Amino acid sequence: TTCDLTAASSFDFRTLDPEGVIFFGDMGDHSDWFVLGLRRGKAEMQISNVVTNISVRGGQRLDDGQWHRMRLAMGGLLLPPSYL
Question: Which residues form the signal peptide (predicted)?
Fold first, then answer.
């Protein structure tokens, strides 16, 4: 049996502040967490778990007071050990 790990979310926001958190989530024990926010006016995503720590920032400045939509999507497939 395989398991589809596809997920997506979108966020509509507007701000004049160049720094801030839009979304934060963790697994309850604070070992795995995810942050979506703004740093220096640009979108930044941070992921931390037992496997890796990732921080990615880029795109146009979003701290202009206009409405913006961020869409995040991840995809993956979990295979049983017999496939590996």
Answer: none
**Identity at 57, one-letter amino acid code:** R
- Residues in CB range of 72: below 8 A, 6 or more apart: 8, 9, 10, 36, 45
Residue showing tokens 């934060």:
24
Of 74, 73, 62, 81, which is closest to residue 10 (Cα–Cα)?
A: 73
Cα 26 to Cα 42: distance, rounded to the nearest angstrom: 22
Domain boundaries, the chain: 3-83
CATH number of 3-83: 2.60.120.200
pLDDT bin (cut points 50, 70, 90) of residue 61 is very high
- At residue 16, the pLDDT reads 97
Nearest to 8 by CA among 80, 76, 79: 76
